[in-house]
Structure formats: C-alpha cells, structure tokens
Amino acid sequence: MVIPELGMKMRKNAMTAENTEIVRRHVEAVTQMLLGNRTLQPGAMIIAGELTDGSGRMALGQMADALGKDLVFLAFGDTADGYSLTDIAVVALRNGVCHNRLGCRFYLPRTGARAVLLPKPNVRGHFRLAPGELMHVDRKPADIEDCQSASKKDPLSACKRDPLRRAA
User: Fold this and answer.
1) Which of 2, 60, 62, 98 is the most buried (most CB within 10 A)?
2) Distance (Å, whole) CA 39 – CA 36
C-alpha cells in the first residue's frame, strides 16, 4: 500500500470498487494456491498493488525491511484485457541483503499440493511460501527439468500442460 505524501504525483484513474474486488479475489486465490490449508503467519505477507514506475522494486525492498517480513507482491495494472495481474515479485531480507525477484510465475508440481513460484529461467531454483517465511529452494522442481530436457530432445513434444493443473 502506498500512502500519498505531499507533492506525490497521483494516478489519473483512482482504484475503483471493481478493481479492488479483482485484487481481493486474486490475493485470496494466491494465498490458497501457495499455502493450501495452512494459515499465513506473521513473518510473511501476500500483498498487491500497482508498480507505477521503476522505483517500485526499491519500494518493495524498503517495505520488506520496514515491516520485517518476506513479501509476495502481486502487481496489477490496466492491460488490453482490462485490469489484471501483470507481475509477481518475491522480496526477502536475509543477513541484511534484500533479495528481490520480479517476473515470477506460479507452478504446481506434479507431486505437490501447493503451488510454488518460479523466477525467470536464468535464475536458479524456485520459491516456496511456508506459513511464516519465503523459502528459496536451490533447484527447479523435478518435472520442470523433465519438461526442459524433453523439449531439447524433441522441440515439438515440449511440455504443453497448463502449469497450474496437475498432470493426468
């Protein structure tokens, strides 16, 4: 949440009730996807809003530091399809260093009951939200690697399953 300050530039379009409801439903669904039947604890937060400029990444780091919490940030904005989710970021402070990854996506491993967050392909590992912290797992889920190696052998047989659905 951004608190307006004196002299701060405001967006032309204020948040509407419809947009607020879209954000609320996404946060609720993402919480269920990442935690399953567990309850979010004080060390982590799932938050949402708009990243209006390049300083958004820095603002997320400052927020995580000020709150002392790991963050999963759902970015929303106007798109060709209307107001929708535009990005997913994870932010965690460890030993005084802010780890901040934009461009993450959801993935439901074949063996898992909870979704994980995959960073961009050039970033090692994936992120799992435990009830009280964001954990970095140093490898990609096994079925992602299977999919990538299958696509190298035969590009036409690349995994085409929806990453949020389980394999049959």
Assistant:
1) 60
2) 8
Helix (H) or strand (E) holding 147, with range, is: helix 142-153
Please report the sign of the dihedral spanned by the C-alpha atoms of residue 85, residue 24, residue 129, residue 98: positive
**Strand, coil or helix: what is 155?**
helix
Among candidate residues 62, 67, 69, the one with its CA nearest the CA of residue 40: 69
Domain segments of the chain as ranges? 17-140
Q: Which two tokens stand for residue 20?
A: 């607020």
pLDDT at 145: 58
Q: What is the mean pLDDT of each run of 10 residues along the chain (168 residues)?
A: 45 75 95 92 92 79 92 94 93 88 91 89 91 91 61 38 34
**pTM for this prediction:** 0.76
Which residues fall within 8 angstroms of residue 10, CB to CB, at 6 or more apart?
4
**What per-residue string of b and e applies to 76-105 under the rule 16 or more CB within 10 Å gives b?**
beeeeeebebeebbbbbbeeeeeebbbebe
CA–CA distance, 79 with 93 (Å, rounded to integer)? 31
